[in-house]
Amino acid sequence: MNDETQKRAITILSTGIAYLLASRFADKFLDQPEERGVADDVKEALLKASFSLASTVIASVIIRRVVSSRWGA
């Protein structure tokens, strides 16, 4: 599997993982006040960025293990 294909696979997989993580855990970490403020938006942005970072790392590990086990690299 070439680098471009690996990058594409990591992007697609990490997007799916981030969606699953965010949909399951975002409501647990964020309180929904009656009126949202800037601080609430900052918390949400940081949470989404954390999920994105974690999902990219997870996807990268998965793809690289699949590639190395399948092609013996």
Shape: elongated
Task: Please give the count of helices.
Answer: 2
Tally of extended strands?
A: 0
Looking at how many chains there are and whether they match, the oligomeric state comes to single chain
Largest sheet: none
CA(first)-CA(last) distance: 10 Å
By secondary-structure content and strand pairing, the structural class works out as mainly alpha
Low-confidence stretches: none
Rg on CA atoms, Å = 16 Å
Can you describe this structure?
This protein is mostly helical and 73 residues long. The longest helix is centred in the last third of the chain and has 34 residues. Helices cover 84% and strands 0% of the residues. The termini are close together. It has 2 helices and no strands.
Which key phrases capture this entry?
73 residues, mainly alpha, elongated
Would you summarize the structure shown here?
Helix content is 84%, strand content 0%. It has 2 helices and no strands.
